[in-house]
Design a protein that fits this description.
Elements (H helix, E strand, L loop, with lengths): L1 H22 L3 H14 L3 H6 L4 H13 L5 H13 L3 H4 L3 H5 L4 H4 L3 H16 L21 E4 L5 E3 L8 E7 L7 H10 L4 E5 L1 H6 L1 H9 L3 E4 L11 H7 L5 H19 L5 E2 L8 H9 L3 E3 L3 E2 L8 H15 L2 E6 L3 H16 L3 E2 L1 E4 L18
Parallel strand pairs: 1-11, 2-7, 3-4, 3-9, 3-10, 4-5, 6-7, 8-9
Helix pairs in contact: 2-5, 10-17, 16-17
Length: 379
């Protein structure tokens, strides 16, 4: 009798402990906080460092299930309830995580409904654009003139505005290639003879090599953006983002790794690099300089990582162009909203008298002889 009572007590305690753990996962509050944090963040680093960033939330939810802190069924129910409570615009913040293969078991019960909500949102958003990506027979009726300009990176080079003339802009796309959105962006660019610099993440290039090849085949420049988008500088901001301070060797391995991946796919890579979040250190800047690689920043930011409507994103990008008058504009080809507004954006900048510039290295052979890349016969 005592043993039976003891077992009963243990089972009740275990059940109450599990229930307490499960109650600690306030998913609905988490997703609502994500919306608030996205709205209030002053820059991309602040947003991606938020504990409520969708990527961080899903990592936490996955870990909780794997560690037995909550059942898969209960976590899935909480996530579906939380995401379903969001407006379609707010839900766009979670779209990439909803589609990730490692998260499928968590969103399986509601994925179809969530995806329909997102697709309906973008169909509605397209109604406000005179040109949209869904028009298969779209013909722009204009083409940007060829405008290729060379930049010498042999002694290092720092690009903020890209040293272009008034009414000239350089299009740049970070974080791809994306198997969801990069090809749509490429189609929009090709239609109007616009060329861009794609700063690829090594990990994304590894899983999308055919898209890297397509970017190259269509005449764009391809630089790198680190292997995993870690914050590379040796400062408190990057330490907080990464959870620890990267050593110089770890940071340079991030830089080398992405260059190596792209070179392995194409046989070349432009001597162009962009620091994640724009966070660099004097030592890393010197490393790029001695490696004969140009460092690319930006003087116009579309802020396409925010949960904004197509119209708001388009207006933000165009206001940045008008404010600066020339230079480098930052987009991300992992963002669906960027792909959605790209035809209209290109039409608007053309109608306002801007030219699109493609920057290339002064010495095209430097593409094939990168100091950041180990050749097959090197250790």
């Amino acid at each position: 009798m005592k043993n039976a009572l003891l077992k009963f007590g243990v089972s009740v305690l275990a059940a109450s402990t599990l229930a307490a753990c499960q109650n600690n996962f306030e998913v609905s509050q988490n997703v609502k906080q994500a919306v608030l944090d996205n709205h209030s963040a002053t820059n991309l680093l602040e947003w991606e460092s938020s504990p409520s960033n969708p990527e961080i939330l899903f990592e936490k939810w996955n870990a909780a299930v794997k560690n037995g802190e909550i059942s898969e069924q209960d976590m899935s129910a909480k996530i579906c309830a939380g995401l379903s409570s969001l407006s379609a615009l707010e839900l766009t913040l979670f779209e990439n995580e909803i589609k990730k293969s490692e998260n499928q078991y968590l969103v399986a019960p509601c994925k179809q409904a969530l995806q329909k909500k997102l697709d309906d949102h973008y169909v509605s958003e397209r109604a406000g654009l005179t040109v949209n990506v869904a028009q298969k027979d779209w013909s722009a009726g204009f083409r940007f003139p060829d405008n290729i300009q060379k930049r010498d990176t042999s002694m290092g080079y720092f690009a903020w505005s890209g040293d272009v003339a008034p009414k000239e802009i350089v299009l740049t796309f970070d974080d791809g290639p994306s198997n969801e959105h990069t090809e749509s962006i490429l189609k929009s660019l090709k239609e109007v003879n616009a060329k861009a610099i794609f700063f690829n993440q090594g990990k994304n290039a590894l899983v999308n090599p055919q898209i890297v090849k397509k970017i190259a085949a269509e005449g764009h420049s391809i630089g790198s953006h680190s292997m995993s988008h870690a914050c590379l500088a040796s400062n408190a901001i990057c330490q907080s983002k990464n959870g620890h301070m990267l050593t110089f060797e770890e940071a340079t391995n991030e830089i080398r790794g992405a260059h190596q991946v792209i070179h392995g796919i194409l046989g070349w890579v432009d001597p162009f690099f962009r620091f994640p979040y724009g966070e660099a250190s004097p030592q890393l800047k010197d490393f790029l300089k001695t490696s004969q690689v140009g460092e690319f920043a930006w003087n116009m930011d579309s802020e396409d990582w925010r949960a904004t409507s197509n119209e708001q994103l388009l207006n933000k990008a165009l206001s940045e162009v008008a404010r600066a008058g020339r230079g480098i504009i930052l987009f991300h080809d992992i963002q669906r909203r960027t792909a959605e507004i790209m035809p209209q954006f290109l039409k608007e900048v053309y109608s306002r008298g801007y030219n699109i510039v493609l920057l290339q290295p002064a010495d095209l052979q430097s593409r094939y002889n990168s100091k950041l890349v180990r050749k097959p016969n090197q250790p």
